[in-house]
Amino acid sequence: MATAAIKTPLRNAPDDNVDWKRVAYLVHLSRALDKMEETRLVPEKEVLYQFSARGHDMGQILLGCRLDNPQDASCGYYRSRPLLLALGVDVADALGSAMGRAGGYSDGRDIGVVFNFPNPNGASALPMCGGVGAQYTPTAGWAQAIEYYRTVVKDPAYDKALAVVLGGDGSVASNGFWAALTIATTQKLPMLFYIEDNGFGISVPSTFQTPGGNIAANLASWKGLKIFSGDGTDPAEAARLVDEATAYVRDERAPAMLRLTVPRLQGHSFQDTQTYKSPEFVESEWARDPLPKLKSYLVPAVLSDAEWDKLEQDAQGAAEAACVEAKARPVSLPEKRDEKTSSSKARCRPKAAWRCTAMSRRPRPRKAGAHRLWGARVIEAMAEQIDAAAPLIVLAGRNYRDPLWPQIERRASVPMEGLGIGQQLAWLSDN
Ligand SMILES: Cc1ncc(C[n+]2csc(CCOP(=O)(O)OP(=O)(O)O)c2C)c(N)n1
Ligand SMILES: [Mg+2]
């Protein structure tokens, strides 16, 4: 009896500074969305390109919960939806984008798994794209802007702000990674490199991306970079590392890397059946699933079993409601999509945006409407920058010229028309 009276149950002591209920809810929500896409929306052909974040979710959500400064910004990649959920992105927007629906922040323009989230109430997510490594230098730019506002404009709102970039173990072999690392460390920028090391870039093991497969170990002697590294599936360790790394960047105004190892519990994308992994390896990955670890960490220390189940049900309910809302949205029409792209961008940065939208995209000859629309945009962009009466020398080929020609032929000349490629090069070097 005496023994029983003094025996204290073994309990975890989760950090009170973490809102664990929110973390658990969001992990359940991320899982519910992944499962809904895999089991229903992909077979229904509502979602065509699906990426599961399963295994990466808890770490990202812990990170997102620490991005609480409205001047913070993050930039992720196609596996970053859990982070976006933690930043507060509308669930129907997240799902609707993957379904190419109208509305939301992308109005059907994105491939779905990439996001942008100009968040007026908190940390924003910079526009992402599918190019591996493309996320790094824009994030360095944000970090540089933070420092400009802090030290030149002297706006105290930026005193503790940071920029965080998310990337996989494959992305550390990209130009963007090394460029941003150089910028952030030579300029001492408040930038956190959050590396989710799942051991693979599609089917390629991380040992092909960096010697030994551990970028944090390899950068140990890199000057001006504080390194944090650990297990992204262990709730206590991941929460502590996220805390330490974000606090370091905020307080020291200097860059850091946080590398968390995580299992990729699904194929690279839905289509990938992972035949390059042995069944034993896949099993060992599932043994590292952070969700059951989170449950045993929180129940009963923070939540009862019933509360845990209720969070899961609530998250499923939210995912279902978001699905109904997203499906009720019309499919975004290409014409409308183009209008929205140009007009919304024009509101932010008129000239640069017009140049980028109107001039960089190649017109598609078989789509006469799109061809004409492209031509009209280029004409408008030119009108902003070139005098209406100025003579024009057109160096572009026929595909690009044709949609503009009726409007410019009176003042345009095409000096390289009819020349072969070698003659064109000669003309260009002579003129
Ligand atoms: C510039 C560029 N090169 C190649 C690809 C093709 N690609 C898509 S995902 C991927 C692997 C990236 O792996 P990692 O960074 O580890 O992220 P993970 O998918 O494992 O989360 C590659 C090579 C691409 N999208 N962009
Ligand atoms: Mg990877």
UniProtKB/TrEMBL annotation:
Keywords: Oxidoreductase, Plasmid, Thiamine pyrophosphate. One of its GO terms (biological process) is pyruvate decarboxylation to acetyl-CoA. InterPro entries: DH_E1 (IPR001017), DUF6884 (IPR049251), PDH_E1_Alpha_Subunit (IPR050642), THDP-binding (IPR029061). It holds the Pfam family E1_dh. One of its GO terms (molecular function) is pyruvate dehydrogenase (acetyl-transferring) activity. Gene3D superfamilies: 3.40.50.970. Residues 69-332 form the Dehydrogenase E1 component domain. It comes from the Bacteria. Its cofactor is thiamine diphosphate. Residues 368-429 form the DUF6884 domain. PANTHER family: 3-METHYL-2-OXOBUTANOATE DEHYDROGENASE SUBUNIT ALPHA (PTHR11516:SF41), PYRUVATE DEHYDROGENASE E1 COMPONENT, ALPHA SUBUNIT BACTERIAL AND ORGANELLAR (PTHR11516). This is Transketolase. It comes from Brevundimonas diminuta.
